[in-house]
Amino acid sequence: MKIITGHKSILSFFLVLSLFLQGCRVNTGAKSITRSGFFFDTLVNITIYDTDDETLLDECFDLCDDYEHMLSITLPGSDISRINAAGTEAVTVSSDTAILISEAGRYFDLSKGKLDITIAPLSMLWTEARNDQIPPSDSGISALLPHIGFDKITLDPNNSAVSKSDPRTMLDTGALAKGYIADRLKEHLVRRGVRSAIISLGGNITTIGTKPDGSPFKIGIRKPFGQAEEVAAALNINDLSVVTSGIYERCFTFDNRLYHHILDPSTGYPEDTDLYSATIICPSSLDGDALSTICLLYGLEDAEELINNTPGTEAVFITRDNRLHYTGGAKVYINN
To answer: Which CATH number, 1.10.3980.10, 2.60.300.12, 1.50.10.10, 3.40.50.300, labels domain 71-164?
Structure first.
């Protein structure tokens, strides 16, 4: 089975079928088990090889439920929802939420402010615009910009307390949460002795080891604006993460202009670069999540420089002329 990654969503015939079997258990044989569910507004699929121990999948999906109740922007009572509703009062959060917010600060600095989890008000505005198929007004965007900025967030690591200097600032960890959770799921399974598995959360794909026969997992990169099963390139992956961000699904066209969901927090508008998609290959799904978004915000030249200067990380970029571009060591993963 080949898994296709694109715009942080898994798209293959098998997984599309699984969408209609959310939460069901499928035993694929005495030596592998798989299950699908819907969390974080996306399809989650986990396949574990060389075991028939269903409790491993129970534990993974319990963790998914726990993390959704920490990091969701829409579930009342989640850590993120409580922060967003709290005005300027400090909110005590789970250690996982505190870690993710701390990591968000690191990526904010790395990206020179391009990746900013305080973009929530703009994200919600553009979600409404996408539903209506009409871009928001300039004045509506301008009114939100003063409330955007990670420098408005304070995290006290001693007691995992988060506060905001601006009561209208809101957090959306969507650019990072799936990567963080994928890493935690992998860590849990490795601790439980799993040696071969593939974990898919949207376009965040994380592998443990190799296939049972020692061959690599095959991951397809979706062709931008193509059919769901069309691939632009295929990768051979062992014990690594592959994360793709793209501009070609959560988008709409108005007056012959494409509006997508990758927003520049300094302008409030979708960033206009020469990239259709960015696929990151690295050990950490969290890093892949963050870097794929940053690269889309940067454009090809700066994205290549960033990845080539990030040890242990490679990338495949697709530009708006549908050409593929590889960082220095990326071609070693290409499935010929």
So the answer is: 1.10.3980.10
